[in-house]
Amino acid sequence: MMERLLQNRTSILLGLGIYFALHVCVRSFVSPSLGYDESEQAFLSQRIAWGYNSQPPLYTWIQALLFQILGCNTWALAIFKNLLLLLTYVFLFVALERATGKVRLAAVGSLGMFTIPQIAWESHRDLSHTVAATCMTCALFYCILRLADRKLTRPAVGYVLLGLVVAAGILFKYNFAIVVAGFIVAAASITEYRPLLFNRKMWLAVATAAILLMPHCLWLMDHAQIASGKTLQTLTIDRSDYWIGNLWLGSRALILSTICCCGLTVLVFSVFYLRKAPDTYDQGKQILPVRLLIERFLLVILAILLAMVLTGHAVEFKNRWLQPFVCLVPAYLVLRFGDHVLQRPKAQRVAMGMTLATMLFLLVAVIVRPVAANLRGKYCWLNMPYDKLALAIEQQWQSTPQIIMTPHMRLGGNLCVAMPNTTIISNDSETLLPTNPKKAIGLVVLVTDQESAQDRAQFAKRVAQEATVNDMTEPWIPVELALRYGTEGATTTYYYCRLLRLPQTHPNRIANVPENTNHKSSLEPTKGIQPPSTRR
Questions:
Q1: 461-498: per-residue pLDDT in tens?
Q2: 3-state SS class at 411
């Protein structure tokens, strides 16, 4: 049975579809609360803009469209992310099938991505833009192979699609530009792919990408600090004044991240497939150029990352940053050692069985992470009772607030789901105020998870810099709520208060921060922000 499965493309693709559909259901039913990146998307999708923060806007645009169709909930978030993940595996599968002509090799290369922890696990635990960029890397790889076949009835359409994928990838995540550069340099160095670059139809791809990227590029010209500030801060967070020290930190971070991403893949492939095998697999005209394309692509990417390290500025590399680059490592191993793979059918069956076990384990892990958080002694965002917080706020004033202001987007995004008819404003967003503050004539509430009275006072002052706290707010009201799936007595505390109308000198204003300000709140959280403190 396993042998037939490995040779049946329909079964493999259908199995992947079922697997990611199950992830959609599991994520939607396990908790209505949102994780780190999920809450950001829920918050940002309240309005459509040419840009938002340090990430490009395309993911938010598509997510906002799905929210309009399906409602602002976990279903819309899970469907979009898992569709991207499914397409990632499908694009790599069909690309390898086209390159090798073997369903068996395509399955090994595509399912090999389950050995990359950042794709197999982290993409479900969190992440958004990185998932989309990884999908676009596999899509771009497939587009290049299709164009190189020269079997397209309308090559011009292929070049337009190439430009569309490039533009989409950059609009999903800025570092996709490195992927594009890697493929350009790699293709230029290979005889079979060089004509694709110097073909007159390539201008169709360039023009398509340029037209689609132009509006956001114009936004970037006026918001360069917003778009790059967070990434540069993360890359240089531990940077010192000594180049040699920075070189050591950057090299170590790059090596460790690469091992974390690729180490398991290389180990599994070596254990199951790398043995002495007769050279019976054709590595000629069809296979060799594709293998060289990935090989040189990875070398170019490595050279770019090393150049960043040598500048002494890049001293930190997150594992997730490498995900759009290393997704092609399993494909390279299949193309490089295809004869070994074909000569070991028993190893393939065992590897397939382990892959199925891994898929089942990941599904269970997604459920266990919030449900068994009390056993681990570590609660996550999905355990937070944001729906109960929204109910408590509405019951307090017997009304749904028109505007809620929060200190960070994680709280704000979750309240967007719980209170879809309320405008949520976050203190760590570049746009603090609604487009027309004069419409703020209804109930305006400040909500925070800050335990410190001093932090709450600073948050209140940040909201209205020209008014004293006593003039603008009522006393903070604490509410202690039980954690979802928590043990008895495990609670978290939130605070909220009503924002009063300011003195008559500013009768229609609820803050003193103009729209599109570049000012950053001192309370802005980092990627490592933890869920609200809990009591057990």
A1: 777 653 444 456 678 999 999 999 988 888 999 999 88
A2: helix
Rounded Cα–Cα distance for residues 351 and 357 (Å): 10
User: Domain containing 531: what range?
Assistant: 381-535
CB 400 within 8 A of CB 394: yes
| Crossing angle for the helix pair 155-172 and 202-222, to the nearest 10 degrees | 20
Does pLDDT of 506 surpass 50?
no
Specify the length of the chain in residues: 536
In this structure, the number of other CB atoms found within 10 A of the CB of residue 256 comes to: 13
The whole-number pLDDT of residue 52 equals 87
Asked if residue 205 and residue 124 are part of one domain, the reply reads yes
Model confidence at 441: pLDDT above 90 = no
Residue 280 burial (10 A CB sphere; 0-12, 13-18, 19+): exposed
Cα 469 to Cα 344: distance, rounded to the nearest angstrom: 72
CA 354 to CA 373: how far, in whole Å? 26
**Short-list 509, 523, 274, CA closest to 403:** 509
CA 274 from centroid of its chain's CA atoms: 33
Residue 389 and residue 270 share a domain = no
Q: Where are the beta strands (DSSP E) in 138-193?
A: none
Question: Cβ distance 427 to 463 under 8 Å?
Answer: yes
Which distant-in-sequence residues (6+ apart) come within 8 Å of 159 by Cβ? 147, 199, 201, 202, 204, 205, 208
**246 plus 365 within the same structural domain:** yes
Residue 38 inside a domain? The answer is: no
Strand partners, 477: 496
Q: Which helix (H) or strand (E) holds 406?
A: strand 403-406
375 within a domain of the structure (yes/no):
no
**Eight-class DSSP state of 120:** I
- Judge whether 86 and 20 are in contact, CB under 8 Å: yes
Using an 8 Å Cβ cutoff, are 335 and 291 in contact? yes
Query: How far does CA 512 lie from the centroid of its chain?
Result: 33
Contacts for 416 with CB less than 8 Å, ≥ 6 apart: 42, 43, 45, 46, 72, 422, 424
Range 115-135 average pLDDT = 93
The Cα 119–Cα 76 span in angstroms is 20
- Contact between residue 502 and residue 467 where contact means Cβ atoms under 8 Å apart: yes
Structural contact between residues 146 and 165, judged by C-beta atoms closer than 8 angstroms: no
- Of the pLDDT bands very low, low, confident and very high (cuts 50, 70, 90), residue 317 is confident
pLDDT of 11 strictly over 80: yes
How distant, in Å, are the alpha carbons of 95, 399, 462 from that of 499?
57, 14, 13
Q: Which pLDDT score, from 0 to 100, does residue 430 have?
A: 57
Residues 387 and 364 in one domain: no
Query: Which of 98-102, 235-239, 465-469 holds the top average pLDDT?
Result: 98-102
Residue 522 burial (CB < 10 Å; 0-12/13-18/19+)?
exposed
Whether residue 413 sits in one domain with residue 390: yes
405 pLDDT above the threshold of 50: yes
Q: Are residues 469 and 435 in the same domain?
A: yes
